[in-house]
Model the fold of this input.
Amino acid sequence: MIHKYGDWDKAIRIFTGLDLKYRQAIKRALNRVGVYVRDKIKRGIRDQAPGGREFSPLSELTIRRKGSSKALIETGDFIGAVTFKVVGGDAVFVGLLRSARGKDGQSLVNIGEVHEFGCVIPVTPKMRGFFRGVFGVNLKPSTTAIRIPPRPYLRPVLEAEADNVIRIFQEELAKLFKV
Done:
């Protein structure tokens, strides 16, 4: 037979309250991290050097089409769509939601993926005609693909800010324990 000593009702109340305060502290930390990292990503795009890593320059043809040499800032749709969302109470998503669309209805997630990782686009006869008609450029017969280099805007920020994310969590938990 087990005998309990002490005020168990009080102990349960303390631990139940502590659990609630802990979950609230985690939620505050996740929201702070989301805002912090989201803002660093947006600033990195504006500065063209997320996490201190400069973007690869745009091609002359792209600059001519856009009228600007800045990546991901053509209309403001992309940078405006960078957001965060607390997921399940124990994680935070920062980036582009799958539902993110530009004013023209185009999926911004696809654009984000191309810029984060780069891509190779095979050149088709239809694409050759497009380049000739829109840009006045005849692609060489030897050009079989167009390479868009990676311009990562997420990973460099996450790598550069890892220590600050940990600090934010430590600050919120320290408030919980009044350290």
Remarks:
- The longest helix spans residues 8-47.
- Strands lie at 83-87, 91-95, 119-122, 145-148.
- Helices lie at 8-47, 60-66, 77-81, 108-117, 125-135, 155-160, 162-177.
